[in-house]
C-alpha cells in the first residue's frame, strides 16, 4: 500500500466530515406549540365591536387614538430614554451575542502559531572562532472540528434563538408597560387639572354666596353664624384647590421618570381631561395570543426549553472530533521546502460508558423544565384573558355609572339655583343652601373621578390587548444554515 500524501489525507478527512454531516440527525423532540386555554369569545364583549386582526389599533403608536399632541410627544420618549426599557434592550443584545457564540461551535476551530528558537552547543566554536548557534523556526497551523452528528449544537442554537426572541418579547412588554404607565399618569395629571378648574369655579360660586350672606347679615336678616359658615365654605374649597397641586406634581414627576429624565427637566402645561375616552375595538380571544408580548415571550421560552431536551438527549451519543495540524520546521534559512514539512491527522470518538445516571437525570430535568414553561405559558394566557375581561367590565360599568352621576350632578345644580333664589327671598335657611352646594360639589367630583377611571381602564384595556404589538414583529434571529453550507463545500466521497 502506498503512503497517503498530505493532500490526500486532507481530502479523506474533508470527505468523511462531509459524509457525516450530510448523514447527521438532530435528536430530541421537534417543537410544536402546545394548545392554550383560549375561549371562543369574551364574556364582556356584548355591545363591543370586533376588530379585524390587522385593523384594530395603529401599529406601534397606539396612543394616537387619544388625539392629544402632548401625549404624542411624551410617549415616544419611553422607547428612547426609559431605563427599564434600556435594560431589556441590553438583555436582548446579550441574547443575540449568545446565538453567535453557539453558532461558532458549528464550524472548525483554526489556529496558527509561529515559534522561533536560537540554540547553542557547549563551548563549541566555528572555524572563525565564534560560538556555534542554530536558528530554528516552527510555523504551524492546526484545525479541530467537533462534528455535530447528533444535532446537539444545532439544538443549542435553536434554544438560544428562541431565548433571544423571548428577550425581544420581554423588551416589547417592558416598552408597552412603561408606555401604559405614562399614559395613565398623564390622564391622572389632566384629571387634577380639571379638578383644580372645578374647585376654582366652585370657589367663585361660593364667593357669590358669601356676598349674598354678607348683604343679608348687614341687613340683619341672618345671623353671624351663617356668615361664618359661608366664609368657611370658601376657605375650605380654596384649600382643596391648592391641594390638587401636590398630586399633579407627583404625576408630572412620574411622567419625567418614565421618560428617563429628572423631574426638574419636565414641565407639562395645564390642560383638561377629555370628556370620555375613545372606543377601543376588541380582538377575538385567539388573536390575543399574537398581540400580547408577554404571551409571545412565554411561548418562545417553551421552544427554548424544548430544544434543551435535545441537547440533553444528545449527550447519550459519542462526541466525534477530527483534528489536523501541519507546518514547517527548519533551521537558519527560508523558504521552507517539502523536506521541512511536518503534519499530523487524527480523530476521536468519546462516549462515557458509565455516569451514575447523570445523563438520564439531565434529560428528566430538561423535560420537567419544559413542562414548567408550558404551564407558565398557559397561566400567562389565562392572565391575559382575565385582564381583558376586567377592563371590559370596568368600562361597561363605569360608562353606566357616569350617565347616572351626570344626571345626579345636573339635578344638584338645579337644586342649588332654586335654593339660592329662595334664600335671597328669605324662605329657606342658609344651611339648606350649604348642603345643596356641598352635594353639587360632591357630585361633580364623582363625575370627574369616574371619567378619570374610564381613561385608566381604557389605557389598561389597550395594554391588555397588546397595544400596537404583533408577534410577527419578533426579529427572526434564525441561525444561518452553516452545516448545510459547509457540507456542500466539501468534496463528495468516491463511491
Q: What does it look like?
A:
- The chain has 495 residues and is of the alpha+beta class.
- The model is unreliable at 1-6, 8-17, 19-23, 48-59 and 476-495 (pLDDT under 50).
- It is 59% helix and 11% strand.
- The radius of gyration is 38 Å and the shape is elongated.
- Strand 1 and strand 2 form a beta hairpin.
- Helix 1 crosses helix 11 (482-489).
- It contains eleven helices and five strands, in the order ααααββααααβββααα.
- It has helices spanning 6-23, 69-74, 76-81, 83-104, 152-218, 224-258, 285-291, 293-314, 358-425, 430-464, 482-489, and strands at 109-125, 131-146, 319-328, 330-331, 341-350.
- Strands 1, 2, 3, 4 and 5 form a five-stranded antiparallel beta sheet that branches.
- It has one domain: Up-down Bundle (Outer membrane efflux proteins (OEP)).
Strand content: 5-15%
Point out poorly predicted stretches: 1-6, 8-17, 19-23, 48-59, 476-495
- Helix tally? 11
* Mean pLDDT, all residues: 83
How many beta-strand runs? 5
Helix content: 55-70%
**CATH homology superfamily name:** Outer membrane efflux proteins (OEP)
What class, by secondary structure content? alpha+beta
Tell the overall outline: elongated
Amino acid at each position: 500500500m502506498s503512503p497517503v500524501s498530505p493532500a490526500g489525507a486532507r481530502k479523506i478527512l474533508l470527505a468523511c466530515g462531509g459524509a457525516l454531516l450530510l448523514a447527521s440527525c438532530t435528536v430530541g423532540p421537534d417543537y410544536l406549540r402546545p394548545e392554550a386555554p383560549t375561549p371562543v369569545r369574551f364574556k364582556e364583549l356584548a355591545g363591543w365591536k370586533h376588530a379585524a386582526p390587522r385593523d384594530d389599533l395603529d401599529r406601534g403608536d397606539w396612543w394616537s387614538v387619544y388625539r392629544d399632541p402632548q401625549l404624542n410627544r411624551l410617549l415616544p420618549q419611553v422607547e428612547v430614554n426609559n431605563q427599564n426599557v434600556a435594560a431589556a434592550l441590553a438583555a436582548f443584545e446579550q441574547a443575540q451575542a449568545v446565538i453567535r457564540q453557539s453558532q461558532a461551535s458549528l464550524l472548525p476551530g483554526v489556529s496558527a502559531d509561529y515559534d522561533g528558537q536560537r540554540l547553542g552547543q557547549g563551548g563549541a566554536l566555528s572555524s572563525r572562532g565564534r560560538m556555534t548557534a542554530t536558528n530554528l523556526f516552527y510555523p504551524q497551523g492546526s484545525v479541530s472540528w467537533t462534528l455535530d452528528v447528533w444535532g446537539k449544537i444545532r439544538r443549542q442554537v435553536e434554544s438560544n434563538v428562541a431565548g433571544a426572541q423571548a428577550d425581544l418579547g420581554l423588551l416589547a412588554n417592558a416598552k408597552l408597560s412603561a408606555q401604559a404607565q405614562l399614559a395613565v399618569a398623564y390622564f391622572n395629571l389632566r384629571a387634577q387639572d380639571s379638578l383644580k378648574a372645578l374647585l376654582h369655579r366652585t370657589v367663585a360660586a361660593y364667593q357669590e354666596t358669601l356676598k349674598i350672606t354678607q348683604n343679608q347679615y348687614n341687613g340683619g336678616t341672618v345671623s353671624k353664624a351663617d356668615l361664618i359658615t359661608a366664609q368657611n365654605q370658601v376657605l375650605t374649597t380654596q384649600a382643596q384647590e391648592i391641594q390638587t397641586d401636590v398630586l399633579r406634581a407627583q404625576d408630572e414627576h412620574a411622567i419625567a421618570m418614565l421618560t428617563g429624565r429628572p423631574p426638574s427637566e419636565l414641565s407639562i402645561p395645564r390642560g383638561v381631561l377629555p370628556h370620555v375616552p375613545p372606543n377601543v375595538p376588541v380582538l377575538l380571544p385567539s388573536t390575543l395570543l399574537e398581540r400580547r408580548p408577554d404571551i409571545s415571550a412565554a411561548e418562545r421560552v417553551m421552544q427554548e426549553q424544548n430544544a434543551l431536551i435535545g441537547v440533553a438527549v444528545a449527550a447519550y451519543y459519542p462526541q466525534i472530533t477530527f483534528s489536523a495540524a501541519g507546518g514547517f520546521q527548519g533551521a537558519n534559512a527560508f523558504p521552507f521546502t517539502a523536506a521541512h514539512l511536518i503534519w499530523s491527522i487524527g480523530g476521536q470518538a468519546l462516549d462515557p460508558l458509565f455516569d451514575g445516571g447523570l445523563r438520564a437525570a439531565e434529560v428528566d430535568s430538561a423535560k420537567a423544565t419544559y413542562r414548567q414553561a408550558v404551564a407558565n405559558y398557559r397561566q400567562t394566557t389565562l392572565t391575559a384573558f382575565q385582564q381583558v375581561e376586567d377592563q371590559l367590565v370596568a368600562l361597561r360599568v363605569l360608562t353606566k355609572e357616569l350617565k347616572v352621576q351626570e344626571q345626579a350632578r345636573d339635578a344638584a345644580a338645579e337644586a342649588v339655583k332654586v335654593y339660592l333664589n329662595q334664600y335671597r327671598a328669605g324662605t329657606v335657611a342658609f344651611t339648606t343652601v350649604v348642603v345643596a352646594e356641598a352635594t353639587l360639589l360632591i357630585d361633580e367630583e364623582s363625575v370627574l373621578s369616574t371619567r378619570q377611571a374610564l381613561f385608566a381602564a381604557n389605557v389598561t384595556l389597550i395594554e391588555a390587548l397588546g397595544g400596537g404589538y404583533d408577534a410577527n414583529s419578533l426579529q427572526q434571529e434564525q441561525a444561518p444554515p452553516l452545516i448545510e453550507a459547509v457540507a456542500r463545500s466539501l468534496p463528495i466521497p468516491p463511491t
